[in-house]
Write a structure and sequence with these properties.
There is one protein chain. The protein has 7 helices and 4 strands; from the N terminus they run αααβαβααββα. It is α/β, with parallel strands linked by helices.
Length: 195
């Protein structure tokens, strides 16, 4: 997918997680899922701001089950793998409209997309639950299928929007809370020392 976008003249930055080094760095800063799913994209957006023209944040529809509590979410209070995942995706989505406003005058656009449930192998488990999940995963989209809505959105020109695959949908619940968004932004800025 990156090669196709590059061939069409787009500058492509692919960020992949190094599970060993990433885990060590994350543990020093905040709970690992929070660092990977929220702080890393937040900081990357800041560090590359002058080099960007278009940003597509990959999100998850599970954000609607999330709870963002500055001071608690970052440290993994009330940790549960699925709940924490939803919490961190909500935190990440809360900042998209703020990035859009901040960059509007410079022509830099940012949108977020939930590409669907993808067969990535992340979070694979053993035992009976693992076997049941493996069976369910057969119905999930392949990574190539999940990349399609991301690539399509990369070619778009809007900003501050959220997409469920290829359909623009309004953010729900706390993801629309501008005061909460500002508090989440301020916490991320303090934790990352973002420029």
């Amino acid at each position: 997918m990156c090669a196709r976008l590059a061939a069409d003249g787009y500058k492509v930055l692919l960020v992949a997680r190094d599970p060993v080094r990433g885990r060590r760095a994350a543990a020093a800063l905040a709970e690992e899922s929070f660092a990977v799913n929220h702080l890393a994209p937040f900081l990357l957006n800041h560090l590359l701001e002058d080099r960007l023209g278009r940003v597509v944040q990959v999100s998850a529809g599970l954000y609607v089950k999330g709870r963002a509590e500055p001071g608690r979410t970052a440290v993994g209070a009330d940790f549960s793998s699925l709940r924490t995942y939803a919490d961190t995706k909500l935190c990440n989505l809360l900042t998209v409209p703020l990035f859009a406003e901040r960059r509007r005058d410079r022509g830099i656009t940012i949108d977020a997309v939930h590409p669907g449930v993808i067969r990535t192998g992340l979070g694979d488990r053993g035992g009976l639950l693992g076997r049941l999940l493996k069976a369910a995963e057969r119905k999930w989209a392949t990574p190539e299928e999940g990349a399609a809505p991301v690539a399509a959105l990369a070619r778009d020109t809007g900003t501050g929007r959220y997409f469920d695959r290829t359909r623009e949908v309004p953010l729900e619940g706390p993801a629309r809370d501008r005061d909460l968004a500002r508090r989440v932004w301020d916490e991320a800025e303090a934790l990352t020392a973002a420029p």
